[in-house]
């Protein structure tokens, strides 16, 4: 048996970190941009210790894929944001010695996260079946682009591409618009949530039964799950299809007044509301005639045109005052700048600072970055950590001393299993286009 070692995560910790739900859990993060790393980060925020394993000299491709072209201390801002609260080590999985060391780590881990294309981890010898021979209690989380079978399984697992295959771009915009994709990595983001959920569920089962397990998900499954209402309705009534509406409509399957409307100084969103009530509150008598809810469908364009013309006469705040007083479901459409400057944004306290110490920056100066925190609160506690994303190979020496030297008695047996594992085929293990990884 290899002695299981546990230490606190690098960086400052608070006295109650040991009370976090996943405290004491060791996660090996083999994944890269974006779904896998964010899933591992979610586990770290819940108390797990996460070690990010990257290829020497290159690392996670996310270090160079810059959101808005922004970089800090040689790594993209997005890399900092999705790999905070982790330690980092390098390993060349084409090298037998490095692979043996990784397998020694595997023997001591609780969780593995990976998001390579189907077949890559099998060629390396780190697929679930191989890993559970080393560590039967392992919880193995795997995210791909489109699953392990079917005609799409080898396609690049990238967010826009997954959105497109799943038909998501046909759900935004109006009938006169081309397909409009969601402008954020929604497929990767939701996949990370599902993967972290599955890993956590298997950890609960392991605490009950002692048995590890495999959880799998994909960008495609995340995008199909997002459409559960649409797919369920269409599959039981094929006459239901996507027919986008006019320029103000915000939903292909909801009637007026559901939409976004211009005001004199911005935009206002209206959700599900009785049309006559809105007409009365706004002083728009023409809307009060639509007492039959069926007309909210049949006369949708007319209702939205009346609202659009009327709401453009006054400011957003003017209309909000009237509608809020009448308990109408509505909201301003804030710009990014308005959002971060709003008292509501400050009240939710959704940001935190991560700090990369002087000893680990290229300039020799302390780097402080503001990013988002975990959106979860545990027992009323906001989950924050100032532990930054690791520099490439930052913890190689300390992790080797802690895990590899201490486990040297078992290194030979684990290393023997690494031999003949097909590591010569692992040259494309990084950047192979798995879930959230462009090829």
State the gist of this model:
The protein is α/β, with parallel strands linked by helices.
Describe the structure.
The chain is an alpha/beta fold and 439 residues long. The protein folds into two domains: 17-226 and 348-428, 3-Layer(aba) Sandwich (Rossmann fold), CATH 3.40.50; 267-332, no CATH class. 36% of the residues lie in helices and 14% in strands. The protein has helices at 35-45, 77-82, 96-108, 120-124, 128-134, 159-165, 186-209, 219-226, 228-236, 275-282, 294-298, 300-311, 316-325, 336-340, 343-348, 396-404, 408-418; strands spanning 26-29, 49-54, 71-72, 75-76, 87-90, 111-114, 139-144, 213-218, 259-262, 267-270, 330-332, 351-356, 367-372, 377-378, 381-382. It is elongated.
Write the layout of secondary structure elements.
Blueprint: E1 26-29, H1 35-45, E2 49-54, E3 71-72, E4 75-76, H2 77-82, E5 87-90, H3 96-108, E6 111-114, H4 120-124, H5 128-134, E7 139-144, H6 159-165, H7 186-209, E8 213-218, H8 219-226, H9 228-236, E9 259-262, E10 267-270, H10 275-282, H11 294-298, H12 300-311, H13 316-325, E11 330-332, H14 336-340, H15 343-348, E12 351-356, E13 367-372, E14 377-378, E15 381-382, H16 396-404, H17 408-418
Parallel strand pairs: 1-2, 1-6, 2-5, 6-7, 7-8
Antiparallel strand pairs: 3-4, 9-10, 10-11, 12-13, 14-15
């Amino acid at each position: 048996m290899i002695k299981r070692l546990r230490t606190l995560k690098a960086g400052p910790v608070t006295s109650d970190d040991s009370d976090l739900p996943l405290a004491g859990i060791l996660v090996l993060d083999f994944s890269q941009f974006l779904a896998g790393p964010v899933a591992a980060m979610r586990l770290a925020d819940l108390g797990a210790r996460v070690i990010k394993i990257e290829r020497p000299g290159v690392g996670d491709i996310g270090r160079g894929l810059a959101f808005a072209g922004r970089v800090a201390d040689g790594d993209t801002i997005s890399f900092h944001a999705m790999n905070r609260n982790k330690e980092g080590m390098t390993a060349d999985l084409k090298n037998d010695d490095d692979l043996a060391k990784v397998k020694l780590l595997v023997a001591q881990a609780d969780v593995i996260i990976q998001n390579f294309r189907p077949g890559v981890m099998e060629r390396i010898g780190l697929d679930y079946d191989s890993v559970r021979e080393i560590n039967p209690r392992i919880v193995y989380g795997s995210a791909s682009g489109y699953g392990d079978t079917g005609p799409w399984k080898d396609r690049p697992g990238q967010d826009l591409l997954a959105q497109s295959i799943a038909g998501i771009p046909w759900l935004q915009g109006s009938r006169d618009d081309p397909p409009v994709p969601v402008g954020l990595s929604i497929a990767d983001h939701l996949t990370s949530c599902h993967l972290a959920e599955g890993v956590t569920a298997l950890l609960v089962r392991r605490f009950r039964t002692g048995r590890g397990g495999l959880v799998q998900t994909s960008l495609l499954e995340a995008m199909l799950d997002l459409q559960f209402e649409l797919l369920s309705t269409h599959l039981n009534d094929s006459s239901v299809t996507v027919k986008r509406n006019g320029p103000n409509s915000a939903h292909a399957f909801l009637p007026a007044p559901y939409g976004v409307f211009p005001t004199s100084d911005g935009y206002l969103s209206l959700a599900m509301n009785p049309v006559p009530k809105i007409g009365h509150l706004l002083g728009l008598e023409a809307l009060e005639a639509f007492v039959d809810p069926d007309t909210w469908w049949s006369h949708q364009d007319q209702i939205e045109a009346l609202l659009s013309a009327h709401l453009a006469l006054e400011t957003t705040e003017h209309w909000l005052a009237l509608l809020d007083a009448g308990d109408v479901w509505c909201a301003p459409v804030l710009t990014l700048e308005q959002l971060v400057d709003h008292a509501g944004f400050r009240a939710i306290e959704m940001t935190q600072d991560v700090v990369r110490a002087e000893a680990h920056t290229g300039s020799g100066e302390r780097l402080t970055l503001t990013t988002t925190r975990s959106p979860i609160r545990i027992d009323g506690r906001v989950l924050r950590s100032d532990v930054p994303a690791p520099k490439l190979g930052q913890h190689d020496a300390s992790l080797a001393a802690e895990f590899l030297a201490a486990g040297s008695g078992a290194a030979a047996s684990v290393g023997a299993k690494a031999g003949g594992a097909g590591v010569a085929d692992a040259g494309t293990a990084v950047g192979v286009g798995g879930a959230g990884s462009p090829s």
